[in-house]
Amino acid sequence: MNAAVENLAPDPILERLEDQIAWYDRKSGINMHWFKRLKMTEIVSAALIPFLAASSTIPHAHVATGVLGVLITVFEGMLQLNRYHENWIDYRSTCESLRHEKYLFLAGAGVYANVEKPRALLAERVESLVSQESAKWASIQQQDSKGKPA
After folding, report:
1. Which value, to the nearest 10 degrees, does the dihedral of the CA atoms of residues 91, 95, 101, 102 take?
2. CA dihedral for 10, 12, 111, 6, sign (positive or negative)
3. Which of 47, 53, 93, 119: CA 20 to 30 A from 108?
4. Is the pLDDT assigned to residue 40 strictly greater than 70?
5. How far apart are CA 88 and CA 56, in angstroms?
6. What stretch of H or E contains 8?
7. How far apart are CA 56 and CA 117, in angstroms?
8. Is 46 within 8 Å of 72 (Cβ atoms)?
9. Each residue of 46-98: pLDDT tens digit?
10. Taking residues 30-45, what's their average pLDDT?
């Protein structure tokens, strides 16, 4: 086969790598979004409680104070249960590691320099990174189902 035609053919290893980078990037962003939104709402709610508690002019301030306390508790529970912060950091780390592998591979640098089969090495390293993340996730889920701290 002509080398120019080979370069146009889809490369399943690079497609897998791009797919995984996109997945981890997207999931990291979603988890960051939820973490920041819930945490900011929690912070604002907590900041309003002393103001409302000290206010004698705001009608039903004591009810609003109670509602804010409930919201803080619910949001903190959601943050702990869904692990948005941890997932954001873990997914971002895996995404950046995959990008690192991609750029080293494309440049023929690092571990990919002077190896006989750089594509095979890339496939092994990508699958190792993804497997490590999957194993870590499964371990956390198993610990959470047993009620142990992650």
Report:
1. 160
2. negative
3. 93
4. yes
5. 42
6. helix 3-8
7. 75
8. yes
9. 999 999 999 888 888 999 999 999 999 999 999 999 999 999 999 999 999 99
10. 98
